[in-house]
Amino acid sequence: MNEMAISRDIAVRPDAIIVLGAGLRVMYDTIVCSIQSVHNVEKGVELVTEYKDVALVFSGGFTLDSETEATAMRKYFKKVYPEIDNDTYLEIQSKNSYGNVYYCLNLAKKEQWSNIVIVDQPMHLFQLKLLANKELRKRKSNVRINFVASEPVWGNNIQKQWKNPFVFGVYEFLSTGYYLLKGKII
Hints:
Oligomer: single chain
Number of domains: 1
Strand order of the largest sheet: 7-4-1-8-9
Helix content: 40-55%
Structural class: alpha/beta
């Protein structure tokens, strides 16, 4: 996606870009981001580069040998983009999509951000939008959230190791139904 398309998708300059984790993997005895998490970080960097001086939040409390998704993403970011010195935050409490939304909205309230962007792979954005809309209504919050898709990855490189978009789509449908039954949506 080119920069013009990104600008049209985000109507107001964001206060923060929130990059969601999508799992961890082991590479040469080291815990690192999954390839999907790397794609999410890359999209976050693209946005940070365009909007300059916005906060960058890495969200994900899923752990592997005590390394969190958020920590691994920040390490990747710092290693690959040392020239970008934006403020970075870690959200390491979330264990699922609802937690990502919940704890990131807590951070937005604490930091007084009124406009945030959430970055994740495209098939997951619908569920995130539903969760965020419900949570915003529940809190009576006027935080504006834009959702931006990163490049999706399939195969043995993401948290659940989805082999193809169809299987992931079925999982998203079922997990969205779970959140609906739990009252987290609608």
